[in-house]
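User: Can you help me understand a structure? I only have the sequence.
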Amino acid sequence: MSPDRALSDSVSITLIICLVVILAIIAWGFFFGYESLLRTNINIAESAEDIPTHLNAHAIRLFHQNGDVGSLNATGSAHYPEVRFTLISPSGLVHSPRPSPLITDYAWNPGDSVYFYRDATGYHVVDSLTERINAIPTYGPLVDLEGGIWTIKTIDNTIPVTINSVDVLVGGSGTASASPYTPGLVATYYSDQAWTVPVTTTIVNRVHFADSASGRASDVSNWPNAYLGKTDSFSAKYDGLIRIDTEDDYTFTLSSDDGSFMDLGGTSNFISNGGLHGYTSVSGTRHMTPGYYPITVWMFENTGAAVIDLQYQTPGMASPQLVSNLWHIPSTAPTADFTGVPRAGPAPLAVQFTDASVDATAWAWNFGDGSPVITVQNPAHTYTGAGTYPVTLTSSNSFGVATETKAGYITVGSFTPGFLASYYRGQSWSDLAATRVDNGIHFSDGSGSTWPVSLVGRQNDFSVTWDGYLLVPADADYTFTLTSDDGSWLWVDEVQLIDNGGLHGSTAVTGTTHLTAGYHHVVVKMYENTGAAVADLTFSPAGSIWHIPSSAPTAGFTGVPRAGMAPLAVQFTDTSLDATAWLWDFGDGATSTEQNPSHTYLAAGSYPVTLTASNDFGASTATEPAYVTVGAFVPGFSASYYTGQTWTALAGTRIENPIHFTDGGGSTWPADIVGSQNDFSVTWDGYLNVPADADYSFRLTSDDGSWLWVDEVQLIDNGGLHGSTAVTQTTHLTAGYHHIVVKMFENTGSAVANLDYAILPSATYTPVTDVWHVP
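Assistant: Let's start by predicting it. Here is the structure, written out as tokens:
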């Protein structure tokens, strides 16, 4: 211990002895001089007639029943009464605990009364003539509402007195105990070893800290660097109150590296563990009765490992435990903060809010949906309508008010699969080019991929934002890996988890966070400068990605098979963007509201199909004319020949199978139908019957241009003026009939048109011959 600390302790001990004698005299006079006051029966009543007209809601009247109790004017005494409570009304509304101002005097005669009323600044005391609002003492008797008995007691329990026969007259049962204190000790960190140069102050729930050099557990992983920016040559003080709930002998153990001291219940240096030393533990024992006791822990660190740890044990405990029942009296306005779980989901969405404010003693919650303000500390609230809601918490204590508003904090709606992907021209996420739904993030412009040319018209100088919700099936630690070329970032629940920014090649960065069951907001941003482009997100354990639509849907669908003999069973698949409801019209008088229905056509014909997709923002309709063909198929393509190169001047039609033509080798094709071997065009239309589900590779050869569509999707583009050229593309087909259309034109010179296919993995191409059409 330093000489200054030793001298200070000596003076403190002398002053404490004097103070104890003075307080004992005052306590004797208070207890015996005002015995009738302390034993007075007290009732509480709440009704309209009890409230003065100039006061607003929730006045509480205190009055006595046993005649004149005299008066109290104990100027200079610390033992002024102080009323603190929580009132629960019959409706269940909880009035948050607020300290009353100090009652400086009593002059109660039969029929007189004292009012307590609540407004924005706290509880006030009004007697029958005047209003008195005074400061709250650091120490003084408390009135704790516990069941039907109130106990007036000082913090150090020197004057415990019971007041019996407390009645609560509010039309129902109604009181609960409340403390004037807020959790935790006030921790002050100093840049020197003598507690003279403060750097920062925070609230801690336990004294359990160690730096990395010690190898010991710590409530703060980067302690004390997180507070001081260093790990040597500092000091700390942890100051407040310890609450004892059960009378017993308490042994406290203070461990530290280097020195530490503990003051308890007015006893300075109750534990002295001073000096320069390694990890050392010192204990002290005291018999304690229920109540609040002042406690201060001091520590300083020279060099090397740094540790401070406070534990306790009673005779009935098997092992020591960390001291955690710690409190303090706020001395400044609070700092408001909160969390809510879950933050997204379908309606009705029940959210549990948790106050994370510092030093708050009252709370007012605005959930952003027009519901009444709630004043409990940790409320639950159910959102019944779709939308995005801000949440505001106003926290207060006797020193002031603080407000925290989190915009767009709760999202309620109907979820649909996938990320909502926004693609931008340029690298700054500002020039929006296209929006679509991506089921995952697994993209690269390598291996022949043209991503994202179809969206932004380029493979360089672009940026993307993926926005969605990860549905977590159970509480777990989730590990995310984000790979990109160039920069990328990941946010989970508005907290940045991965920073993979900068100009670089394909680079993977990993981050882990704990997620509770339910939906969690996930945002990925990526940009590409030049060169290769990569964006890939994986996570473990498993979950699914969803998003909430923010606009009317875009309707779309597919059907398989689209042609065949009656009865023809067709499986329809919704491909709409952001739809939450569906209405199908199959063109034969039948309808369905399923998302992916199956429908059987019973009669020959060509049928249009219409899908109307809708969500909370509107509806859209997609109609495909002649989408399903049912009937007696006959072999071959239906071939339409045109004079000219624009498929407009029909020259004639006929059945052809296969498409295998050239005007070379003495052939006069197609002079017999168009009158020339140049300046013509052709369309072949039919249905290819494939034998099995497989990947099919089509090869289209032509001179000049040609194109191939399979099931209305362009598969091959072999357009332009050129000699005999073959283009190959692969697609997956299910067993059955598939609509095939080939268009070709000839300018001058040689004319060629050939269509072949191979069933992978075979590399052998044969002419497409199993083709049919409807007469």
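Now, to help you interpret it: The chain has a mean pLDDT of 79. The chain has six domains: 34-176, 182-328, 338-412, 416-547, 557-630, 634-773. Let me know which part you'd like to focus on.
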